[in-house]
């Protein structure tokens, strides 16, 4: 009878684990619950043959502990993500020859050409350029390359007029 309870509890915990969790708090609860059930079951079976009760208590305590730890990890991840957004929200443009950190959000002639090929509307590209806050250095070669790729003259002018 006790074994049957243990199997039911362990099966329920594994079912939850297989369903998956989208947060670390959920994953921590599942992992903590599984570990707690295993340890509780072992301890319970060694003391007065109460493996089922030990597994249930261990699962509850482990799930609670795992959820708390996972929640703290979720908060830390959220803080890192927020810090990443705030640091990347200020556009940076580095003049040629400068060896500073490369900004992946920087608008380049190649990116403008890609947008044009993807069919992004001209006014949207111009708006992105104006909102970027970047000062562009458009060389004659850049201008020729963009013109040859079919970039609208108004987009090229928007890039040139950011100084």
Low-confidence runs: 85-102
Question: What would you call the shape?
Answer: rod-shaped
Distance between the termini: 81 Å
Q: What structural class results from the helix and strand content?
A: mainly alpha
Which percent band covers the strand fraction? under 5%
Order of helical and strand elements: HHHHHHH
Number of strands: 0
What integer is the average pLDDT? Answer: 74
Using only C-alpha atoms, the radius of gyration works out to 29 Å
Number of helices: 7
Number of domains: 2
Largest beta sheet, briefly?
A: none
- Specify the helix fraction band: over 70%
Q: What does this 3D model show about the protein?
A:
By secondary structure, this protein is an all-alpha fold. The chain has two domains: 2-85; 109-160, no CATH class. 72% of the residues lie in helices and 0% in strands. Helix 1 packs antiparallel against helix 2 (24-46) and helix 5 packs parallel to helix 7 (153-160). It starts with a helix and ends with a helix. 24% of the residues are buried. Residues 85-102 have low confidence and may be disordered.
């Amino acid at each position: 009878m006790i074994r049957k309870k243990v199997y039911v509890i362990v099966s329920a915990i594994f079912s939850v684990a297989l369903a998956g969790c989208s947060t670390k708090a959920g994953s921590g609860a599942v992992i903590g619950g599984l570990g707690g059930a295993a340890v509780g079951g072992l301890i319970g079976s060694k003391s007065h043959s109460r493996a089922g009760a030990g597994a249930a208590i261990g699962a509850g305590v482990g799930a609670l502990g795992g959820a708390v730890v996972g929640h703290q990890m979720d908060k830390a991840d959220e803080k890192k993500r927020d810090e990443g957004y705030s640091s990347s929200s200020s556009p940076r443009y580095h003049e040629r020859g400068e060896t500073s950190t490369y900004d992946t959000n920087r608008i380049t002639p190649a990116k403008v050409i890609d947008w044009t090929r993807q069919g992004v509307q001209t006014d949207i590209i111009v708006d992105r350029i104006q909102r970027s806050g970047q000062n562009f250095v458009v060389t004659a070669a850049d201008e020729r390359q963009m013109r040859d790729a079919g970039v609208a003259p108004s987009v090229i002018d928007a890039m040139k007029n950011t100084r």
